[in-house]
Automatic annotation (TrEMBL):
Main subcellular localisation: membrane
Protein name: Nucleoside transporter C-terminal domain-containing protein
Protein source organism: Chitinophaga defluvii
Annotated transmembrane regions: 6-23, 30-51, 100-124, 178-200, 268-291, 303-321, 361-378, 399-421
InterPro entries: C_nuclsd_transpt, CNT_C_dom, CNT_N_dom, Gate_dom
């Protein structure tokens, strides 16, 4: 009961922060806010409380975990004899060294998922699914078609790819729509990365897949709620009341789609690996310096980034309803996700370098860190969307940090609501 009360405080705190930094409080559309939160609650209730829906998401999660096995078939050919143990039976065995080598798993899985998404995009299925869900969200929340489409698309594809789907509208979108679109891309997570996180959890014996799918779906309306409080609509939208998505493929055929998808997946995977090597090395360097500083004041005090994050994000973690035993470690992961990136946070969660002992704490933190909202992603968005719509680059730069704030609060809002309901 106390945890639910904490969660109510958390919702009030999250919405209060958005209201505090709103640029026009008188123009806030409270119908949109209430309907958006209602939609988040409905998604969480369906997944966690309705048995058939819960079963469907469990099966979907198992399917996501199984994708890694298919990706391993391709990886076995490339890494065979070095990264993969191939038993005499001829079947594909575990990777060498305890069954999980991060670079091999991540590379293979992201490449496969990106290839599959490219095929679904080429045949038009991806666009139709996105448009269907966007129409439902547009009907419930009364948001414009462009921002509904981009937010829903962000739950399936990467943050820049989601904007490609609304390319025709980017030039004429209002600043409020642009912020909502950017916020949704930062609050959600791409399908390829979602599968990687699910497999990282499975390797550690954690059933994260249904939680992560739920998080990405809840993030779409959540990002709209927060962004529309922070930057209410005061201009006239070109796509208000209509959702129209052009079903058009840039690929020649399915083979071309697989080729391009695999190539794009490889670039993403290499970028992930490079970021992790760079960030973790920098963290080690900073921690070494912080420990030296801490020892100046107390030889027994090991100052570190984790210690700082644990203190800085403690109030938010507590307010979200995290059980007392896990508050400090959840706060640490929240800080790592925002300041460094979500991969570092998930790796520390699944490796149990920052252990979470309660089921509720695991649910809340899994949803809270399931998103692209970090400082490096803001730069990627400004650069990526700026290439698609160069005339909006100045607006993108001005809205970048606001989008980071909105995307972060949206993930926290989803996590808090889920924590109250379980």
């Amino acid at each position: 009961m106390m945890g639910r009360f904490q969660g109510i405080i958390g919702i009030a705190l999250i919405l209060g922060l958005a209201f505090l930094f709103s640029n026009n409080r008188k123009k806030i559309n409270y119908r949109l806010v209430v309907s958006g939160i209602g939609l988040q609650i409905a998604i969480a209730l369906l997944v966690f409380k309705v048995a058939p829906v819960n079963w469907f998401f469990q099966q979907l999660g198992k399917g996501m975990v199984k994708i890694e096995g298919f990706a391993r078939q391709g990886a076995a050919f490339v890494y065979g004899g070095i990264g993969v143990v191939q038993p005499p039976t001829g079947t594909i065995g575990n990777y060498a060294v305890n069954g999980f080598v991060f670079a091999f798993n991540v590379t293979a899985t992201i490449i496969l998922v990106c290839a599959l998404v490219a095929v679904l995009y080429h045949i038009g299925l991806m666009q139709r699914v996105v448009a269907l869900i966007a129409r439902a969200m547009n009907y419930v929340m009364r948001v414009s078609g462009a921002e509904a489409l981009s937010n829903v698309a962000s739950a399936f594809v990467g943050q820049v790819e989601a904007q490609v789907m609304i390319r025709p509208y980017l030039k004429g979108m209002t600043k409020s729509e642009l912020l909502a679109s950017m916020s949704g891309s930062l609050a959600c997570i791409a399908g390829g990365i979602l599968v990687v996180y699910a497999n990282m959890g499975a390797e550690a014996g954690l059933d994260l897949a249904p939680k992560l799918i739920t998080a990405s779906l809840m993030a779409a309306p959540g990002a709209l709620v927060i962004s529309k409080i922070l930057y209410p609509e005061t201009e006239e939208s070109q796509t208000m009341g209509r959702v129209k998505l052009e079903v058009k493929s840039n690929y020649t055929n399915v083979i071309d789609a697989i080729s391009h998808g695999a190539g794009d997946g490889f670039k993403i995977a290499m970028n992930v690996i490079a970021m992790l090597i760079g960030f973790i090395a920098i963290i080690a360097f900073l921690d070494w310096g912080l420990i030296k500083i801490g020892h100046i004041f107390n030889p027994q005090f090991d100052l570190s980034l984790n210690w700082i994050f644990g203190k800085l994000f403690y109030p938010m973690a507590w307010a979200m309803g995290v059980p007392d035993a896990d508050v400090n470690n959840v706060a640490t992961l929240l800080g790592q996700k925002l300041s460094i990136n979500e991969f570092v946070a998930f790796k520390n969660l699944t490796d149990k370098a920052v252990p979470i002992i309660s089921e509720k704490g695991l649910l809340i933190v899994s949803i809270a860190i399931c998103g692209f909202a970090n400082f490096s992603s803001v730069g990627m968005q400004i650069g990526g969307i700026g290439e698609i719509a160069p005339e909006r680059r100045a607006d993108l730069a001005r809205l970048g940090l606001k989008a980071l704030f909105c995307g972060t609060l949206a993930s926290y809002l989803s996590a808090t609501i889920a924590g109250i309901l379980i």
